[in-house]
Amino acid sequence: MERFLGKYAPYIFAIMRIMVGWMFAMHGLQKIFNIPPGNNPPPALLSQIGVAGIIELVGGVMIAAGFFGSFAAFICSGLMAFAYFMAHAPQAFLPLVNRGELAVVYCFLFLYIAAHGSGVWSIDALMGKNRVRATA
């Protein structure tokens, strides 16, 4: 597979970054603005859930756009680690038991993005702040 997809790795990473960032931002949209409508009313912005929603919305958009992507992804990774240990781990430690697998997956995806940089198709690349370049 390396030979088949290896030359497309920078672009596949960019698609992943954009989609993961957008999906994460949607969690923030739902928490802050109730879009799409859910079962819970929007929280107070300075509550724990409100602050998490702001970080999800702003951080997700920054990651998707690749704008200070490493910094945003690092903050979002920490948020997801915090969410796991605050909301899920007290129920049971294993993610499949406590329904925290999405928080764990987001945490490690964001940690990888933070280490990798925004890559191609990003504002960081346009500004010359990205150390990862396409090699195709």
- Mean pLDDT, all residues: 91
Instruction: Report the strand count.
Output: 0
Number of domains: 1
Shape summary: globular
For the termini, the CA-CA separation is 16 Å
Given as residue ranges, the uncertain stretches (5+ residues, pLDDT < 50) are none
Number of helix segments?
7
Give helix % range. 55-70%
What oligomeric assembly is this protein in?
single chain
Strand content: under 5%
Structural class: mainly alpha
Q: How is the main sheet built?
A: none
The run of helices and strands is: HHHHHHH
The rounded Rg comes to 16 Å
Describe this structure as you would to a colleague.
There is one protein chain. The chain is an all-alpha fold. The protein has one domain (2-126). It is built from seven helices and no strands. It has helices at residues 2-5, 9-33, 48-65, 69-88, 95-98, 101-116, 123-126. α2 (9-33) packs antiparallel against α3 (48-65). The model has no long low-confidence stretch (mean pLDDT 91).
Q: What is the strand and helix layout of this fold?
A:
Layout: H1 2-5, H2 9-33, H3 48-65, H4 69-88, H5 95-98, H6 101-116, H7 123-126
Helix pairs in contact: 2-3, 3-4, 4-6
List keywords for this structure.
136 residues; 7 helices; 67% helix
Summed up, what is this model?
The protein is mainly α. It is built from 7 helices and no strands. Helix content is 67%, strand content 0%.
